Amino acid sequence: MRAEELGIDAVPVGVGAALRMLAAASHARAVAEVGTGTGVSALWLLEGMAEDGVLTTIDVEVEHQRVAKESFAAAGIRSTRTRTISGRALDVLPRLADSAYDLVFLDAEPGETGDYAEQAVRMLRSGGVLAVSDALWHDRVADPARRDELTVAMRELGRSVRENEDLIPTLLPVGGGLLVAVLR
């Protein structure tokens, strides 16, 4: 599979199915994704989105986006349903509109995911959904003895989402943990 060739971990089927359900339940028309990969998670999201919905996917790796576009075409997804943006998420996210997205999916290394989540909350409409993959970060988050930078970053993200009174969060036991929160 292309994901392995590019050194990418594609979302597991359980995470994909949860994303499809979240997109459908929120009647998503506008979705943003950080971490395009080979387009696997985007395909799940698109399957749950409204027929006229548009998915914006951001990745710093141009090659990943090229492969994702091939995946979209092979799946019969119209080019008008996807918008790929190459660049660092911290440079791109601030340029995306406030309160304009129904769902934002973060599938990236945890180092900057807390900053991505801050931007995502700003981007969500009331009732919109934030979803973060690998929220348990290889089962390290629950182990207080794990103090490496990435584990601490993911632990802090979980704490900040739980403590944000504007969010209604839960942790779904799929994949490496899917942190989901609805904006009040």
Automatic annotation (TrEMBL):
Family matches, as CDD domains: AdoMet_MTases
UniProt-recorded Gene Ontology molecular function terms: O-methyltransferase activity; S-adenosylmethionine-dependent methyltransferase activity
GO annotation, biological process: methylation
Keyword Zinc: no
UniProt-listed PROSITE patterns: SAM_OMT_I (PS51682)
Tree of life domain: Bacteria
Keyword annotations of the record: Methyltransferase, S-adenosyl-L-methionine, Transferase
Protein name per its UniProtKB record: O-methyltransferase
